[in-house]
Amino acid sequence: MTQAELILFLESLGADVVVRRFGPRETTPDSVCAYFFPVPEPFEGIRAWEEMLILDEYEDGWAINYGQYPRTRALQDEELKSLLTEWVREPDYRLFAEHELE
Description:
The protein has 102 residues and is of the alpha+beta class.
């Protein structure tokens, strides 16, 4: 799945999506950040880590960073879509636990 396809899928699930780089430009790839929870208006500042999923692309798929540090293994398209869809229905970080790096 390309970054553009991932962004479209996340938006179809109702996420606000931004692309950010969390390190030096020359050595850090872009991360796709998805926010699924409404923010009270007016909102100024940076949303909290607990409100955001960060998706990073690897050779074998996309990994989900959640909370502040835990990360899933790289997931292929259908597995990733299924997990994200389930999480949107019931946002519980424990859903990601069985997909964490070993």
